[in-house]
Amino acid sequence: MTLFSRPRRLRRTPIIRDLVTETSFRLNGLIQPYFVTEGKSIHEEIAGLPGIFRESPDALVKSVSDDLKLGIQKIMLFGVTERKDAMASSSMDDRNPVIAATRQLKQKFGDDLFIGADVCLCAYTDTGHCGVTVNDRIDNDRSVEVLAEMALALAKAGVDCVAPSDMMDGRVGAIRERLEESGFHDTLIMAYTAKYASAYYGPFREAAKSAPGKGDRKGYQMDLRNRTEALRELQLDDQEGADIVMVKPALAYLDIISDFKNHSALPVAAYNVSGEYTAVKLMAQAGLADEKLMVLENLTAIQRAGASIILTYHLRDILRNGWQHA
Ligand code: PBG
Ligand code: ZN
User: 3-state DSSP call for residue 49?
Assistant: First the structure.
């Protein structure tokens, strides 16, 4: 055959393949999530998230110190508590585990550690919903007031970044206003801009003890059949003062990540969620596929789609095993 175009010429050797690669796996944008609970000396593995733990603040400080030596400099904290009530008051009080842990971490590590914290009410409401319930309905505006207070409490404790994951309307603007008027001009907002109602959050809800008692989250999280609607959320979060916009989950939503990259000047993040992580873990444990190859394939695909930042439970494994050196 006389073929003028033979794409395989560029695939012949590893050196040629490296020469023409369009995406290189980038470690710098990865953030490791942690679960913090009340108490002392608690370090329990989460059943649905192999290798991920629920820890009390003292144990967390120890884990984060070890992880820092490994190279993990960016973390995201999620609170877990049994203290739940109608108005989510434990989301911002002094006994809140995330607030307690942040104070200790900031004192110890200062700017050597980047601390993000989830801003949502589902771990703190007695209903397990992401907003507060008033007259049997999730009250958007009351929820936003509570969320803004929670964000301020976290900023005061010392977090570098707040990450609202609740999907109430107007919360990014309200949080930004509350932070600005209180002098927290440098606190980043990483908005969960397009957060879809997904089955892939299953292991997280067990980990955070945050499953809704009644009903589901479809009244506030996005409908997975919609794509253009994500651009509306993007426009709003950008206008309201977000610094980083996030798509969640990641793997079934690469089109949304790509849209964000093409329609916004802000850094785009993606959340490689609990179900995506555990699917890989279970497949690896069953000996059906290579864990390193699955992890690198998934994370590279998310970066190729346009995300420069990825929240992923795999980060510790990547560094421990040296998987970043393909
Ligand atoms: C809380 C929150 C959830 C996740 C992050 N923040 C769960 C949910 O919305 O039900 C999911 C993270 C994961 O699955 O890893 N709003
Ligand atoms: Zn929530």
Answer: strand
